[in-house]
Amino acid sequence: MTVPALDTLRRGACPSLSAPMRTGDGLLVRLRPAAPALAAEDLLTLADLAREHGNGLIEITARGNLQLRGLTEASVPRLAEGLAAAGIVPQTGVAIEIPPLSGIDPSETVDATPVADALRKAIAAASLILAPKLAIVVDGGGVLSLGDMVADIRLDAVAAGWRLSVGGDRQAARPVAVLAEDRVIAGTMTVIAALAALGPAARGRDLDAAALAAEFGVVSEPPPFAALSRHPLGIHRIGGERVLGIAPAYGQMQADKLAALVKGLVACGASEFRLAPHRMLLVRGFSGEGLAEAEACASLEGFWCTDTAPGRSISICAGAAGCASARFDTHAAADAVVRGAGELLDGSVDVHISGCPKGCAHPARAAVTLCGTAAGVGLVLDGRAGDAPAAALPVEDLPSAIRRLGTLLRAQRKEGETAKSFIDRTAPAALVSAYQGPQ
Ligand code: SF4
């Protein structure tokens, strides 16, 4: 396998096996096995390969992809060979997301798998040049539907077929059409061709949804399923079985920990693993007794397995523990937020802790971002890691700054109020002042 010269790699490209991305701890490869269900042996192989060819740090991303870190130009081809030898085929082409339990969840409106597969084939056959980070969601509904996943193009299952919309999550995406089953691929390809016509960097937000809707005719169907998507962490009843959602703390784990988890879960009855959004692993195969043992096993290995885990709404990058670009220990900072400002972590807002302004863990805006900069750890409100911080502090002052933010929240939040509502009604200057402390 040929790895492109590193100076051709850029932040905007997807760091696949054929185009790994340079980060502070070497090369990063992001991959999604094409098979939705993984066996224990697959995960054990991935752990071995991460240890052998990288620095052993494995991440599950917010979209449910795997990231292997600390690779080198020499080791990436060996990783590719190891994956091929194990029969683990990474998905290629445009990222098309479907709910992680598609095809096995009796409560889904329709299995999204065939539509996603047909769309993937149609896009490949069209040979269009599309933005490298283009994301398409095909959401057939069900317990773990993808309503909260932002996409350039969405297909949501509705009574009359598929609702086609662009540029957003299920509620915010702008509607284009409702397509019957036999028109869904051709109709979606019309929108993808319109995107390609706008240029190789065009995203769903750049499309003129009203003009596209006029081509298709009037759209009257409202967004399906008004309810928020369920978080995959914890136990889910899927038909007659119970599926356990497990998360590595803050989305990161060492290969040895993953191997220990998988072996422990197999001993409890685990038979199948699925990657899922929100940095999750879904595990099937447990009986009632085995489920309780599996939860205990996951907790023992340091994984989260209840939907009350407070750190689940924090996104962190590798930080000083795994990346030379990091200016502070992002894990320690996340633990400090859990301890000192846990009220921020009710799931209503995103909190992002980034070792440097590159913002690998959470490219989108977050309500609160702590970011390592030359001037110290910066506080960015409602922005990205690369935005100018409202204030910056020396790293050693960060724990007390976090405690002051927690104190402000506890003192001024109304009973039952969410962190989001509190932040929305609070002047940014008050949050900045709490972060900075007495001047
Ligand atoms: S955001 Fe984090 S992982 Fe990415 S380069 Fe910066 S310090 Fe490294």
TrEMBL record:
It comes from Shinella zoogloeoides (Crabtreella saccharophila). The keyword Phosphoprotein does not apply. It is an enzyme of class 1 (oxidoreductase). Residues 20-86 form the Nitrite/Sulfite reductase ferredoxin-like domain. GO terms for molecular function: 4 iron, 4 sulfur cluster binding; metal ion binding; precorrin-3B synthase activity. Keywords: 4Fe-4S, Heme, Iron, Iron-sulfur, Metal-binding, Oxidoreductase. InterPro entries: Cbl_synth_CobG-like, NIR_SIR_4Fe-4S, NiRdtase/SiRdtase_haem-b_fer, Nit/Sulf_reduc_fer-like_dom_sf, NO2/SO3_Rdtase_4Fe4S_sf. Gene3D superfamilies: Sulfite Reductase Hemoprotein, domain 1, Sulfite Reductase Hemoprotein,Domain 2. This is Precorrin-3B synthase. Its EC number is 1.14.13.83. It holds the Pfam family NIR_SIR_ferr. It comes from the Bacteria.
